[in-house]
Amino acid sequence: MKKTKLLLVDDESGQRKMLAGYLEKNGFITEQASSGEEAIQVYSSFFSPVAVVDMKMPGMSGIELIGRLREVNPFIQIIVLTAFGSVETAVEAMKRGAYHYQTKPVELEEFLFNLNKAAEQYHLVVEHKILNDRVRETFGSGEIIGKSEAIKKVLELINLAAPGDTTVLISGPSGTGKELAAHAIHSLSGRKENRFVPVNCAAIPENLLESELFGFEKGAFTGADRRKPGKFELADGGTIFLDEIGDMPLTMQAKLLRILEDHKVERLGSEDSLTLDFRLIAASNKDLNQMIKEGKFREDLYYRLSVVIIPMPPLLERPGDILLLADKFLKEFSQKLGRDISGFDPAAASSLVSYNWPGNVRELQNVIERAVVLSRGDVITLKELPGLKTSDTESLDNLEKIADVEKAHINKILGRLNWNIGKTAEILGIHRNTLRAKIKEYGLSQAD
Predict the structure, then answer these.
(1) 198: cis peptide before it, omega within 30°?
(2) Can you give the pLDDT at residue 257?
(3) Which pLDDT score is estimated for 258?
């Protein structure tokens, strides 16, 4: 098992050496520093994923050291040591980016557990950043945006599915980015130099679907005045993406199943088979399992398609990503339309977060484009967001700070989930200790 590097910063020599000895027996490689200044010098060459920092030291404070270490490595996970009764200091440290805090005297088993979780978090964060960078290189401004746990899981699944040739089924409501996910899989795969061929099964009339997918020979039917390759043939060497596969007729489902089994296609009007090399990715906004029960979708085809399933979450399940996406679209459309708009006022931001977004990311994109067109100022206000007012946003005249928006949003999510801290933190895309700190900061209680 690979050992994890850890920087241990504490001015108390006895405690520092005791902790280092314990951690080295439990899978860590430690480097020690007796002050913040020494820690900065050591870290430039040691560069560990995790650090333990005492909050109260002579010279540079623990709070300042957290900032300095994160300047060198933005992904470092820091656990702070604080005296019993100094939780407010620990909360401040977590606002500055610390992962967790540990009160003195240190309970060793709990300490080890938190350090292992911090190391795991570091690797997840770095992998998420690397994948986002790879997707960003491919798509430019079309990258998959978000910090929520739901979208992190999507990115992890894309990263795992991309290298192979297994079929992938992407599920989720309309507007959640299923085609973007499919394109990401293709562009991160060994087939990226070849074609990505999207087909919307719902948009092609049933009597034309077969000829579109498989192609036809000249004279195959009235009006076939030339040979035409089908979508599968065009995807030879690359990826074919069948969107809304739940709308495919049963007769076509049987033919698709056969093609998946032998990768052979016959053009309409031809007796010869073409052996093709393609990867198939499918998507549906329908419940295919329910369609199987109703006899509208073949069970054997479902099992061939669903080797890997990637569920795309609706925007309602990732509220912490709404303003990130809105800011992205605002920058894109402001640039495209030649407008200088800096952001959203608090009431508009709250309205965006409170709205249910039945059309998901696509609806949000359209709303922001319309707002940019309608705007006559340098910020988006509620006037540019018609139709988004809810009971939560009708009396926002007194809101002046984004902090008020955040407080209201956290309180609303907590209420919906009966104050389940773990689930609320997951939906908000933050650590549960960060959530507890914000509950304390905003003075929230279950009685609110």
Answers:
(1) no
(2) 95
(3) 94
- Domain pair 4-124 / 144-313, same fold: yes
Q: What is the number of helices (H) and of strands (E) in the chain?
A: 18, 16
Under 8 Å between Cβ of 233 and 276: yes
Say which DSSP state 313 is in.
P
Kind and range of the H or E element at 309? Answer: strand 308-311
Segment 412-417 long-range contacts (CB within 8 Å, at least 24 positions apart): 412/354, 413/319, 414/439, 414/444, 414/446, 415/448
Q: What is the DSSP letter of 390?
A: -
For the cut 50, the answer to whether the pLDDT of residue 322 exceeds it is yes
What class does CATH assign to 144-313?
Answer: alpha beta
Fold of 316-442: Helicase, Ruva Protein; domain 3 (1.10.8)
Task: Give the position of tokens 């006899």.
Answer: 295
**Which run of H or E residues covers position 197?**
strand 196-200
pLDDT at 311 over 80: yes
Residue 397 DSSP class: T
Q: In 3D, which of 204, 162, 163 has the Cα closest to residue 181?
A: 162
Show the CA angle centred on residue 112, arms to residues 106 and 115, nearest 5°. 105
Three-class secondary structure of residue 215 per DSSP = strand
Per-residue pLDDT tens digits for 223-246: 887 888 889 998 999 999 999 999
Using CA atoms, how far apart are residues 411 and 405, in angstroms rounded to an integer? 10
Q: Two tokens at 275?
A: 């052996």
Torsion of CA 40, 45, 49, 54, to 10 degrees: -30
Residues with Cβ within 8 Å of residue 66, at least 6 apart in sequence: 53, 78, 80, 93, 96, 97, 98
| 12: β partners | none
Q: Which CATH architecture has domain 4-124?
A: 3-Layer(aba) Sandwich (3.40)
* Rounded Cα distance, 260 and 186, in Å: 18
Task: Check: CB of residue 80 under 8 Å from CB of residue 98.
Answer: yes
Mean pLDDT (the chain) is 86
pLDDT above 90 for 431: no
* Every domain of the chain and the residues it spans: 4-124, 144-313, 316-442
| Secondary element (H or E) of residue 413 | helix 402-416
Tokens of 239: 């990826």
Q: Is the pTM of this model over 0.90?
A: no
Phi, psi of 156, rounded to the nearest 5 degrees? -65, -45
How many other C-beta atoms lie within 10 A of the C-beta of residue 293? 11
Reading the block at residue 307, the tokens are 């080797």
